[in-house]
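Structure first, sequence second, as always.
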């Protein structure tokens, strides 16, 4: 519940506190402590609410001099709204690789290296698209249409495939036509990914910033987040969507052409079809080169609001791929007497090439990231600054956070695709073992999961031991913070344990780095083993000693089951999220963290909600301050603090003078500064501190997410307040006869320090901003003129959209 302690409006006009919630979302009723809040602007997806008594607060300034008017911006429906969000689980690897794009180290004067970094991440994203479509081709074309439908025992077990059986002699019974029919599945998957990307762009990311000068870039030192085009990446998303759609369709076309061309090269085969096969393969190679070229073109344009779209490329590339797919279907479906399906389709080489390519890209990406990290020299602090702020936390993994996350994205894609192939193969085959099954490489990749879990178990044990030691060390600190109070051993241990657990967030780089390194090594071993032996691990170790052979068989069986269970977990989670709102909210928390960034590396990633939220906030702040001349506190909790900081970067300088930042439970430095140093590093946050009139940050030692910003003092109070007490009262007192809870990451407004800091921010704003002109409600500019774009009537007034109900 927002506190309403005394906050005089003063001569600078009315005051508003714009509350922005964090991950998981909440309701306007909870944020405003009002059972019937009114939506004053926005829609059912994201909107600004006020208490019913505060709708016309600006027209009654005398009645609101004792407190700022609270507003609540609710954006949770962007990530955890309707049931279609369950489909976003399929896009998890795409989201993770998109994060890798934004994790590059800071760099100044190394534009080519920065572009190379972005190019490598985009190529990683392209391999993931090809991997997903290739896995769909493996299931539909190889396992179902080629192996099962071509085997009498399998079609007898699955009668719904009877019309494809060669024994029936039907029109669809030939291998080529069976493959053409099965190609509808990966083609539909590609079309679904295209549709989701296109629809979510229109719904989420098509908002434009309010600045009339958005076409020009004013370098204020704030980095990329201050650029006009940062939150409007329409051109790149459209181009990448066309390229990835074409890549998926070309993958399906290749899955049709290659087996048919192989059959045409048999002795005595038709010469005309053989020539057509070579021509189609050459055309597919050329088209694939064009796709790679489209991905390799220059990335985002952030210095200006780029409204252009490469229409010739966006339209012609997918259309040409569709034409090639149709030609491939006609070619593969042509009658070839004597062509029989036997064994597996030649997918082993494809998956091996993809795995090796992904590993190579990650290694090169690591080299580039290391060069950027080594060559960057942050601005030096003065001796006085060094004594006023704690040292900034180190960049995660010494700048290798992006390559590590890209490796995890590739591994996650391999687990998902391998799990699908393994489960479908087991379902089709049953216990008969009459099918060759999926490619050998997928079995090898599944077999590396048990060793990886063993590494995780060892890491978990190490972190558990470290946490216990930290908890013991914190007991003395808790006792020192409560002198003169009767010691309570159980209460002290409870507080110390929560503080120690809160520090586990800082160990995330260790876990991610270890998992990525082990995954890379085991992945290389799996590829080498599959290529050298062309047999599964159990069969390759059949001639080894009994102990080795038994271990190989156990690891293979366990890995197969774990891969299948992982796939089933995804399906179950998606089904549950489709039916239950609570499950959708849980999944929404994951998207809140992972989809803050625009889609710069993969167009099929879940949509970026910040491309809707940041323009919403900047529009609201700009129009309100210019219309009223009042003061506004952007109050953000958790992920909301990141959003208000991003919005503050986008505000015009004339508006920033009337805006203060109040962040609490903020991951700006603890998470974003460590993992995204190029955009939330100390230099970028210091520039925001200079541009904003005043900024205050609150945090608790028990908070596992929020932490200090660690910026030096620059002519005013430091950004960080001393750590808040948690719990507020150590033991039972006359005023608190019941034990106070440990709040951790939530309910910062319950601390009296919150209202105190907000009052001080508004007092500082009152001293900084000019008073409004009498009789107009408009602020006086330095030259005495009226600010451009101001209006007499509030956009949220009762004559506007204030009367709409929140529903």
């Amino acid at each position: 519940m927002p506190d309403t302690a005394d906050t005089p409006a003063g001569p600078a006009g009315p005051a508003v506190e714009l509350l922005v919630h964090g991950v998981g979302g909440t309701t306007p009723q909870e944020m405003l402590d009002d059972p019937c809040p009114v939506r004053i602007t926005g829609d059912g997806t994201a909107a600004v609410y006020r208490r019913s008594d505060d709708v016309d607060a600006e027209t009654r300034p005398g009645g609101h001099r004792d407190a700022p008017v609270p507003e609540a911006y609710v954006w949770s429906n962007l990530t955890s709204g309707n049931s279609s969000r369950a489909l976003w689980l399929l896009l998890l690897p795409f989201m993770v690789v998109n994060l890798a794009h934004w994790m590059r180290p800071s760099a100044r004067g190394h534009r080519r290296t920065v572009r190379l970094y972005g190019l490598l991440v985009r190529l990683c994203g392209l391999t993931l698209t090809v991997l997903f479509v290739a896995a769909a081709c493996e299931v539909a074309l190889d396992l179902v249409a080629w192996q099962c439908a071509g085997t009498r025992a399998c079609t007898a077990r699955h009668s719904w495939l009877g019309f494809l059986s060669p024994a029936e002699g039907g029109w669809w019974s030939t291998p080529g036509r069976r493959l053409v029919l099965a190609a509808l599945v990966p083609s539909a998957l590609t079309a679904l990914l295209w549709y989701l990307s296109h629809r979510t762009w229109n719904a989420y990311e098509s908002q434009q910033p309010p600045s009339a000068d958005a076409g020009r870039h004013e370098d204020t030192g704030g980095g990329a987040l201050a650029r006009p085009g940062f939150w409007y990446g329409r051109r790149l998303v459209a181009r990448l969507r066309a390229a990835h759609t074409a890549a998926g369709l070309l993958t399906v076309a290749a899955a049709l052409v290659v087996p048919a061309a192989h059959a045409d090269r048999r002795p005595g085969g038709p010469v005309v079809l053989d020539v057509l096969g070579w021509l189609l393969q050459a055309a597919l190679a050329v088209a694939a080169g064009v796709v790679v070229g489209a991905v390799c073109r220059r990335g985002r344009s952030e210095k200006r609001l780029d409204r252009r779209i490469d229409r010739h490329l966006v339209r012609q590339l997918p259309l040409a791929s569709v034409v090639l797919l149709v030609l491939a279907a006609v070619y593969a479906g042509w009658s070839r007497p004597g062509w029989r399906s036997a064994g597996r389709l030649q997918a082993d080489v494809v998956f091996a090439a993809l795995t090796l390519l992904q590993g190579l890209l990650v290694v090169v990406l690591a080299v580039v990231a290391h060069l950027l990290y080594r060559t960057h020299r942050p601005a030096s602090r003065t001796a006085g600054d060094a004594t006023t702020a704690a040292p900034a936390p180190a960049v995660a993994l010494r700048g290798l956070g992006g390559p590590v996350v890209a490796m995890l994205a590739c591994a996650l894609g391999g687990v998902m695709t391998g799990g699908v192939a393994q489960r479908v193969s087991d379902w089709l085959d049953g216990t008969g073992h009459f099918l060759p099954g999926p490619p050998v490489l997928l079995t090898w990749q599944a077999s590396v999961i048990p060793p990886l879990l063993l590494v995780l178990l060892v890491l978990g044990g190490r972190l558990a031991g470290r946490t216990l030691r930290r908890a013991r060390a914190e007991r003395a600190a808790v006792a020192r913070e409560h002198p003169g109070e009767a010691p309570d051993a159980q209460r002290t241990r409870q507080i110390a344990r929560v503080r120690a657990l809160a520090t586990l967030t800082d160990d995330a780089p260790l876990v991610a780095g270890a998992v990525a390194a082990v995954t890379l090594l085991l992945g290389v071993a799996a590829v080498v083993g599959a290529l050298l032996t062309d047999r599964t691990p159990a069969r390759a170790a059949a001639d080894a000693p009994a102990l080795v052979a038994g271990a190989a068989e156990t690891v293979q069986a366990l890995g197969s089951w774990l891969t299948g269970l992982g796939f089933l977990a995804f399906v179950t989670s998606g089904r549950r999220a489709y039916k239950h709102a609570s499950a959708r909210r849980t999944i929404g928390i994951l998207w809140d963290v992972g989809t803050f960034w625009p889609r710069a590396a993969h167009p099929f990633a879940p949509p970026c909600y910040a491309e809707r939220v940041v323009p919403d906030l900047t529009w609201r702040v700009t129009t309100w301050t210019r219309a009223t001349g009042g003061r506004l506190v952007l109050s953000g909790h958790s992920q909301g603090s990141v959003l208000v900081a991003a919005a503050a970067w986008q505000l015009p300088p004339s508006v920033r003078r009337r805006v203060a930042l109040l962040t609490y439970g903020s991951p700006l430095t603890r998470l974003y500064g460590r993992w995204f140093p190029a955009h939330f590093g100390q230099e970028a946050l210091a520039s925001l501190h200079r541009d904003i009139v005043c900024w205050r940050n609150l945090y608790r030692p028990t908070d596992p997410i929020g932490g200090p910003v660690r910026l030096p003092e620059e002519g005013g109070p430091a950004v960080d307040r001393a750590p808040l007490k948690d719990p507020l009262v150590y033991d039972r007192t006359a005023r608190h006869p019941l034990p106070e809870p440990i709040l951790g990451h939530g309910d910062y407004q319950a601390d009296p320090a919150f209202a105190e800091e907000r009052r001080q921010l508004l007092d500082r704003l009152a001293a900084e901003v000019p008073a409004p002109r009498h009789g107009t409600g408009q602020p006086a500019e330095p030259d005495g003129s009226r600010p451009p774009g101001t209006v007499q009537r509030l956009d949220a007034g009762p004559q506007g959209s204030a009367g709409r109900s929140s529903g």
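Margin note: The first strand starts at residue 15 and ends at 20.
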